[in-house]
Design brief:
The structure holds two protein chains of two kinds. By secondary structure, chain A is α/β, with parallel strands linked by helices. Chain A has two domains: 87 residues, Translation factors (Elongation Factor Tu (Ef-tu), domain 3); 164 residues, Rossmann fold (3-Layer(aba) Sandwich), CATH 3.40.50.80. Chain A contains six helices and 15 strands. A seven-stranded mixed sheet of chain A has the order 10-9-8-7-11-12-15, with helices on both faces. A six-stranded antiparallel sheet of chain A has the order 4-3-6-1-2-5. Chain A has a two-stranded antiparallel ribbon with strand order 13-14. Chain A is globular and about 50 Å long. In chain B, α6 packs antiparallel against α9 and α6 crosses α11. Chain B folds into two domains: 198 residues, no CATH class; 101 residues, no CATH class. Chain B is of the alpha/beta class. The mean pLDDT of chain B is 95. Helix content of chain B is 34%, strand content 19%. The chains are: A alpha/beta, B alpha/beta. At the A-B interface, β4 and α1 of A face β4, α3, β10, β11 and α9 of B.
Chain lengths: 271, 352
Amino acid sequence: MKNIYKPIEATIEDIIVETSTIKTFVLRTSESFEFKTGQFVELTLPGIGEAPFTPSSDPNLKDKIEITIMNVGRVTSLLHNITKNTSLGIRGPYGKGYPLEQFEGKDVLTVGGGVGLAPLRSFLFSLFGDIDKYNKVVLRYGARTPNDIMYKESLLSWSKKKKVDVVTTVDVGDSSWKGNVGLVTTILKDLPVDLKKAISVVCGPPIMMKFVTLKLLDLGFKPSDIYLSMEKNMSCGLGKCGHCRIGRYYVCRDGPVFTYEMLKDIPDIWE
Amino acid sequence: MNIYYIQTSKLNDFVSRFKKNHNVFSPYIKDPAVKEKDYFYKKSADTEPPLFNAYRVVEPLKSFFTYPDEKVTEYFSTGKNITDLVEKTIIFGIKSCDIVGHKIQDFVFLEGAEVDSLYRLRRENTIFISGDCTDFKEVCHCLAWDILPHPLLGFDLNLSPLNEGYLVEVGSIKGEELIQLGKEYFVQAKETQISARKTKRDNLIERLKKHLLPQNLVSKDTVQKLVREGYNLDTWHNFMLTCVECGGCNLICDTCHCFLLADKKENQINSKLKIWDSCLYANYARVAGGANPLKTRTRRLRNRFMKKFDFFVDNLGMPACCGCGRCIEVCPGKIDIREVLKDLAKKVTVKA
């Protein structure tokens, strides 16, 4: 019988420095490991600890998986200090992921804040791989400073793609920054989307998701057309350990992607 | 299902037969001098007869299936499977509240997308021998949740004391098979015995009702509405004031199931541990970076009630409380689940 708590081995093939606090780990798993975009995994630092992450790579790449990690806590700070060829454990994938089939034919507005662009990169790769199915892809991304912008080259190449529209903003600019300065909500004006056939996908820190959601509602998005990534302190990933409850849901089992419609009547969701 | 009769002395012989290849657990009284005696579980020695407990034991039934701190898997090594070590177990002294509360554990660990294989193996290798309650503790309030003080389902065998023996009701195929292994000890129960059982059961229910009626407890069908509408009331804050965050209420609760999955390295072997967690602990909901949706004790106390009376009503159609009162007895801050709900009821009605 399968032991649901046992991780499989994944070797770090490469480590890409994205910003001073964010790195992308390129992993090769010892057994086949597939995920749908938006699903998450539990990554184990052997003998030390485990934490949940949403992969940032294209789910169609079968031989490797990339996970972009910000140095914020006990496990992530240790992860930031390890080197290539180290073995990690991986369990999952868990959760439901993005319902891509419901986005077909739509204008897809993607709003990212900070390291929240990591899961969205995987989502965007999925869209780009099948771009004919979607009417338009719009990305609005906010970082704290120009130095905190992740995936700089990708952002540039995405902005040159057909049917794709990218705008980036920073909370605080510097002498080299020519773009918008202000929170991500300041670049949600005059969006090139048709509200009658638009959906929005939001990922970022809770405070950012809160204000983006309010802004999107204000713009006329229906609560059922706003998809949020609610990442809590998932420990088991299996709906058993109890930690990631929001109202009647477990984030690991019923999410991590929820529509605002599902969450709007639950108190304290942004805490 | 069949109902048999067995004399007390023969029950002892019957049980002794199984001690060779089963761990048999039975209640015992640690301190016979106290007024309201407490029963605890212990592994029953070879010739020791099982003790019939008048009401539920102190330890929750879940403690036979998940442990406060245990290794659930090794990884990156070729050690033997943890699941190879599961032993056959017979548990005496289970009560109706334990069985109902345990539905929550079964729901969590046996259902959903994936099954906890260690839990399942332990469950499959355990025989439940329950018994009618013949008395109750001050904190007992099963009837408030429409749970009777004798089990109707969910046992393998159920014992009802009668004269110099027990009526033994079979509740499962496993139970019937057990009887067949010692059928010379049993006779079919007579109608008069079964009606005598009913009289005894009805008498206890009447006594318990008399105990509970003046308490004016919250009912099963209103409790979800109550915790939802009372979400912003001062009840949570007021009851929190004596909470010392020991987690006792969660750890001793037969429905609470939260655990942390932790990692450990010992002698070059990596393992994952399942460690019981409590939503009253300050770090229960904390995420990397320090944000904590349950940062105040008030929120954590409320969370315990929302999980029991909102989440589980939505997810399983029943509240996660069986009225066993263990959390009331264990709490050093004297926080009484009955009183918290009554306080909400008082204030929610006043508001409406």
